[in-house]
Amino acid sequence: NLAVLLRARPQGAPVLSDFDIVEHAIPKPAEGQVLVRARYLSLDPYMRGRMSDAKSYSKPVEIGAVMEGQTVGEVVESRHPDFRPGDTVLGGYGWQRFSAVDSSRLWKISPHDAPLSWNLGVLGMPGLTGWWGLKEIGQPKAGETLVVSAASGAVGQVVGQLGKIAGARVVGVAGGAAKCAFVTDELGFDACVDHRAPLDPALDAACPAGIDVYWENVGGAVQAAVFPRFNDFGRMVMCGMIAQYNTAPGADASGAPAGPNLGPVVRKRLRIQGFIVSDHGWAQYPAFRAEMLGHIAAGQMKVKEDVTEGLENAPEAFLGLLEGRNFGKAVVKVL
Ligand code: NDP
User: The complex's ipTM?
Assistant: First the structure.
């Protein structure tokens, strides 16, 4: 059973030697559990948090344990009456080929709905994050301006396309010309700003009527540039701040204090709210999935994935995710 273990807790940016690649025994499912063979593994920014033992909303991965992650694959052996060998399931565990998981964590899904790997992106945790956060917090209305950072990524691509469906003017922020062109030409955003070029003039041009909703995926310099452009009663959905995951809290990549002056929160009556998708999102998974399948069928929800072949290449792909080298939802094809 090929697996990737956490060898060391990173100081700053993770490095390859923080991981171990091993062969270990295939686990035996206990009563109520199911043995799942992973076909695809999801790579997500939250995994950087699990590598650290800083206090958080979830427990860290122990040193020497399998890296945390969600997989999609098929049931090999079942000790629960609701699952049978051959069933396709979302919710296998970890950076490993075989996992024994509690049936309560598993979603039985149709392999015919969409390509299998999409269940980790547009139909999985990142898609659910975008759908829930926009519905419950961002609430863009027709004619409002929604700005989405990390716009070509797993969460960003869903948020922006849902914003378009809601009738908003949608402006992406992404790293580099190729990602920006994709965001406007393929995903249909109204504009996209390259965060590697000067942000202020580009945001002014892209958001002539100011910003009503900001979907925050990155923090740092992008957040600081967006903030003064909020309209009254603006909403900021605090989804993540990946630009700061490898640094001390509140500092940007250069170590300098990052973030805007918060004074206008009062004057403009802004609402800033963070959320963790696992708190409430999965309870609405069936409704989310049905709605997203409808958007996909209607051609209103395009998908871009960044597929890495082979579990042994997962560490390298994960380091790339933290540096913006992924173009689309990062998944690993488990061979
Ligand atoms: P993405 O697929 O968007 O990949 C990460 C992207 O972040 C990179 O491609 C890169 O895009 C961008 N990025 C990386 N470093 C920087 C930087 N220093 N400055 C600016 N941009 C950077 O990841 P996800 O869609 O999976 O996740 C997006 C965010 O959502 C993350 O912050 C994540 O932690 C958060 N999240 C939160 C959840 C919740 O429940 N609150 C659930 C799921 C995700 P580019 O090249 O365009 O800059």
Answer: 0.98
